[in-house]
Amino acid sequence: MREIDVFKWPIAGGSIAIRETAVLPALPAGTRADRHQTAISGRPAPKNAPKARKSPPADLLAFVRTQSPTAAAQALGLARRTVARLRDGYWPRNPEKIVRAWRTYAGHLAEQRSGWFLRRVYAGGVVRHARAAWGSPALAARVGQVLVCTRAADGALLAQTLALPAERFLLAPVTNA
């Protein structure tokens, strides 16, 4: 708590000043790291500060600057003028739409790092993949479980259980599923 002097100027009594001492609560400490607990800052820490990027991702800038504005705008689904402004160094305060468009575009170009994918076992030991049904008699008791699958060399599907000890099954196309 701090004490300060307050002067009151009564309207009806003339120009006589009455001096009183008021006690004010201490202000919160500042937001800078070099200030200590007793320091006072006129700017409290924001509660809901934006968490957006302050500059564009480097790969986005490289892409926008190597492509023509029209080609980049079509690829990203943005306006041609927005892409042209990005090339000139513009970055908006709220770049969510631009970042979302870039992540979508970059995700379509990303390499698939693993050939394994998750699939659920349906009734009769059937696993659905690539608009086709694949099955094995050994999977009939595993209905509802999730397996990891990959393509085998002969074009069949190879499935492996996630539970230890892991078991592998060779799946063949099912015609009547």
Describe how the helices and strands are arranged.
Elements: E1 2-8, E2 18-24, H1 58-66, H2 69-76, H3 80-87, H4 96-109, E3 117-122, E4 126-129, E5 132-135, E6 146-151, E7 157-161, E8 168-173
Antiparallel strand pairs: 1-2, 3-4, 3-6, 4-5, 5-8, 6-7, 7-8
Helix pairs in contact: 2-3
Describe the structure.
The structure is a single chain. The chain is of the alpha+beta class. Helix content is 22%, strand content 25%. The chain has 4 helices and 8 strands; from the N terminus they run ββααααββββββ. The strands form 2 sheets. A 6-stranded antiparallel barrel has the order 3-4-5-8-7-6. The protein has a two-stranded antiparallel sheet with strand order 1-2. Strand 7 and strand 8 form a beta hairpin. Helix 2 (69-76) packs across helix 3. The longest helix is centred in the middle third of the chain and has 14 residues, at 96-109. The protein is elongated, with a radius of gyration of 33 Å. The relative contact order is 0.08.
